[in-house]
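# step 3/5: fold
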Amino acid sequence: MTTLFTRDLGALRTGERFTTRGRTVTESDVVAFAALTGDHHPQHADAEWARESRFGERIAHGMLVLSYAVGLVPLDPERIVALRGIRDAVFKAPVRFGDTIHVEGRIEAARPLAGDVGLVTTLWRIVNQDGATVARLTVDVLWRGERVPEPAPAPEGAIAGVLPL
């Protein structure tokens, strides 16, 4: 089965949608992320402090949720060269221990850049098991397409960049 992320750049269409598999966020995930990043904010790491917070309990780091979202999207290494940018991330609701998240996204734009690479802009919603949006963001991806032919070499004796008369 061909998925959106295995297709050639030229085969993508604005408005096409995708949905990923889910992943459950655990307390162990949050503890490991805090240890890995050094982000020990009490909202994530201190149960007593968090109990008195706006959320009433510890919650997952926003950056952990974004990282899991990137891992959930099936970025085929034969097509996807790299993430180019992540912008306009907005966190709408907390992700609690035991929540299962997935990504719902769509192609917003696709345009060639140079050679066989184009820039694809995607809009992502990270959604929990209840259908609530927990975050949304825009992700730009460098996407490999068919090779665009190189221009023919200039005639012998021609100056580069100058058209012959």
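# step 4/5: annotate
The helical segments are 27-37, 42-45, 47-51, 62-72.
# step 5/5: archive (pending)
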